[in-house]
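Help needed: design a sequence for this.
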């Protein structure tokens, strides 16, 4: 599918020209000031990254190359009129910046299918781990072990000119994305289905094949996974998984290393592990209250009890968003359309009523509204993917689309190694007060 690569390069190289001009002619321009508060609270709002694939508005939520989620559900190609957009189309959009034709999406599906062979040693690495190793431990180890395949690493050693780095990165990225469903499904079947593995079906699309290899072959699950893979793919550049992939990639580490590092970040409970935590916390409360249909009063009491214990309410809050996450809304609409009377989903809906007013009264919480993780697990659970310790792997498969499209772009720009400054705490005290600091 060389034409997709060529089309990407034709568009991307124009941005490189703009980047070089900006650097040369406007490098000294001041665009923002950094406050002590920003340094002390995770660099929130400090403009310091270039990410073209998506932009997050605090109130409106994510836009992928300028398109909102509802727009994409209309515009991106799908397999049937009542289906969800294919993630292949979203990847094309993230990479090239244009809504693809159905034929482009079909060709990308075929390309990934051709590239999807996972070398045996990757399965051996997974099989060498104890079965109680967390799915994300197995996932990241498998990705790292696949770096043996890196064409970029070999090309670098052979001394290629830096202007061709992106070309080899592109092939690594396409190979890696193509293989992730097989790796994820292998871990799933190993952990929960006694290692009874299912071969890929080359006729299926990327997300459909993932569902198939996991052993969930209904059209309903395939439709859900297509939506899931689209909405979890990208959230601009500063979130932990995207930023880490980009940072590690800035050292010219190959895409397998860079993405594996990003996935280790995704595995944290304040990021992608929250999708497991949501389900775990709801089952914990159902168990403690001895009911699978807790009342709103019971939910409110439990939320307060969780806060009093110094814990977070998983699935709520966000570092950037200040409204309900449109990824949450897309999933809620999906549930309203296709699912009737599911006790877990009813509880998730009730929590949407109960949690924000309570979090709003805490004072320090900047965003009391739900994020993507508040809904995703309940949908997967409904369709029979009940093994929630696996949910972050699904998030990770999807996140590859955004962060790896950006990684290729990083190399087209020729972005340098990243190296912000750090100071001792005493130096910040001195900058703030004008007097020598001590701690
Ligand atoms: N429950 C309880 N306390 C919360 C909270 C929540 N859902 N959200 C924020 N807070 C607390 C913070 O822990 C922080 O407390 P301290 O000052 O004591 O440290 C305070 O409120 C201020 O935090 P904030 O500025 O509003 O939020 P941050 O940018 O620091 O953190 C996030 C954002 C998502 C980590 C946080 O809201 C959180 O922990 N949420 C629950 C976990 C979660 O759902 N994560 C998934 C996010 C989406 C994703 O990446 O997948």
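Sure. Designed sequence:
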């Amino acid at each position: 599918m060389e034409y997709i690569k060529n089309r990407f390069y034709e568009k991307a190289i124009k941005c490189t020209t703009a980047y070089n001009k900006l650097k040369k002619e406007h490098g000294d321009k001041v665009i923002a000031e950094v406050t002590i508060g920003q340094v002390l609270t995770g660099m929130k709002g400090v403009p310091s990254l270039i990410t073209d694939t998506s932009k997050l508005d605090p109130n409106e939520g994510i836009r992928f190359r300028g398109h909102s989620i509802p727009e994409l559900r209309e515009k991106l190609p799908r397999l049937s009129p009542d289906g969800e957009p294919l993630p292949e189309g979203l990847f094309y959009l993230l990479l090239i910046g244009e809504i693809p034709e159905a034929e482009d999406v079909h060709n990308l599906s075929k390309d990934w299918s051709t590239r999807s062979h996972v070398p045996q040693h990757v399965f051996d690495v997974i099989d060498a781990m104890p079965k109680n190793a967390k799915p994300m431990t197995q996932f990241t180890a498998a990705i790292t072990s696949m770096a043996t395949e890196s064409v970029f690493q070999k090309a670098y050693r052979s001394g290629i000119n830096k202007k061709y780095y992106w070309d080899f990165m592109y092939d690594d990225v396409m190979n890696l994305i193509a293989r992730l469903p097989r790796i994820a499904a292998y871990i799933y079947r190993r952990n929960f289905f006694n290692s009874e593995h299912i071969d890929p079906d080359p006729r299926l699309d990327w997300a459909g094949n993932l569902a198939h290899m996991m052993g969930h072959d209904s059209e309903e699950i395939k439709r859900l996974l297509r939506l899931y893979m689209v909405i979890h793919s990208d959230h601009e550049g500063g979130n932990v998984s995207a930023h880490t992939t980009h940072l590690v990639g800035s050292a010219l580490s190959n895409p397998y290393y860079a993405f594996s590092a990003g996935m280790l970040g995704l595995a944290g409970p304040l990021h992608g592990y929250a999708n497991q935590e949501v389900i775990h916390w709801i089952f914990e409360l159902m168990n403690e209250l001895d009911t699978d249909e807790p009342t709103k009063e019971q939910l409110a009491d439990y939320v307060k009890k969780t806060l009093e214990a110094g814990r977070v309410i998983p699935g709520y809050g966000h570092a950037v968003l200040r409204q309900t996450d449109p990824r949450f809304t897309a999933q809620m609409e999906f549930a309203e359309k296709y699912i009737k009377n599911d006790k877990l989903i009813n509880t998730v809906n009730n929590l949407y009523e109960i949690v924000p007013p309570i979090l709003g009264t805490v004072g320090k919480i900047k965003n009391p509204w739900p994020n993507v993780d508040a809904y995703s697990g309940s949908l997967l659970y409904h369709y029979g993917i009940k093994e929630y310790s696996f949910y972050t792997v699904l998030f990770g498969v999807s996140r590859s689309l955004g962060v790896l499209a950006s990684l290729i772009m990083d190399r087209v720009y020729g972005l340098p190694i990243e190296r912000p400054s750090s100071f001792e705490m005493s130096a910040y005290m001195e900058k703030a007060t004008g007097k020598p600091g001590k701690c």
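The CA atoms of residues 22 and 28 lie 10 Å apart.
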